[in-house]
Amino acid sequence: MKILSVVGARPQFIKEAVVGEQLRRYGAHEILVHTGQHYDVNMSDVFFRYLELKKPDYNLSVGSGTHAYQTGMSMIRIEEVAIKEKPDIIVVYGDTNATVAGALVGAKLKIPVAHVEAGLRQKPKDMPEEINRVVTDHTSKFLFCPTKKAIDNLKLEGISKGVYFAGDVMYDLFLRLKDSIDDQKVLEKYGLQRESYILTTVHRDFNTDNEERLRNILTALGEISYVIPVVFPMHPRTKKVINQKNLWNLLGKTRVIDPVPYHELVALLANSLKVVTDSGGVQKEAYFAGVSAIVLMPDTGWIELIEHGWNVLVDADKDHLIEKALNHVPPSSMPKELYGDGKAGVKIARILVGED
């Protein structure tokens, strides 16, 4: 069986590290396509090296640009590869432009599409990631859901065939790596002490491209930084906007660093007091590590963490963000196996190669 896997951004590299390994273990011939959406060394190359990902068979070098440009160019180039390679299945991950591009190519060429991390839904409904999720789910034959809530979401849209509760592949990787990371070495590298800082990430376009929202978030981080250190690995998109708008003064004593390799992010996250983020992946990784997240969104695909009080939605409300970042106390316990049993990659691979 020949499987064409499409990746383009950091969360997809992480998921591919798990699923791709299992696909090859179960005998699939995997063709890995990297759209080149993330081309910064710390955002892309270093993940391939550290996670020991299979070297991409194709790098499409799409790069940055508008959503239409990234999606369109990815479709054109993925289609060329798919016509040449004639895969039995196209696997896509998550909610990026690379995801929807791969799904649409599969649908147009009548190649079955497998969506890893299917069924997530959140507001606002016009956010690019939400549009990508919905379109991908409605064009996929195999829908691998990370939570039971995701299955319910698909049922509400009339999708019940080909739906599987696989669990979250990021949980697989977290369990695999957590004991191999030298936390102390990473903390020493950045001059930090355990539970003495707040880690933050900001990259969603509805935050970076809306000056009022971004000002509120940066101002809040700046005020928090005078109470407790704030460490901010800054996404290139966010840095570009802050430079253009000259907003650096809002950050106060916030410590801005370059994007970090995945293992360093896990170490920084696991040893932080709290996390402030608009990243879907970081929200979950915080939970895996026993750290609560203050979420810079009006809604989240990982709503179960909000419902149980582990994470908190603050949107871009400056005062709410400050109050929760400094004072929120998560519950002492959470339901087990919200995200499966750490064997999502195995389940997905077995289904795709026909062993389950």
TrEMBL record:
Family per record: Belongs to the UDP-N-acetylglucosamine 2-epimerase family.
Organism: Kosmotoga arenicorallina S304
Lineage of the species this protein comes from: Bacteria, Thermotogati, Thermotogota, Thermotogae, Kosmotogales
InterPro entries reported in the protein's UniProt record: UDP_GlcNAc_Epimerase_2_dom (IPR003331), WecB-like (IPR029767)
Keyword annotations from UniProtKB, A to Z: Isomerase
Record-linked SUPFAM superfamilies: UDP-Glycosyltransferase/glycogen phosphorylase
Domain UDP-N-acetylglucosamine 2-epimerase: 27-352
One GO MF term: isomerase activity
Pfam families assigned to the protein according to its UniProt record, in alphabetical order: Epimerase_2
NCBIfam families in alphabetical order: wecB
Protein name: UDP-N-acetylglucosamine 2-epimerase
Domain of life: Bacteria
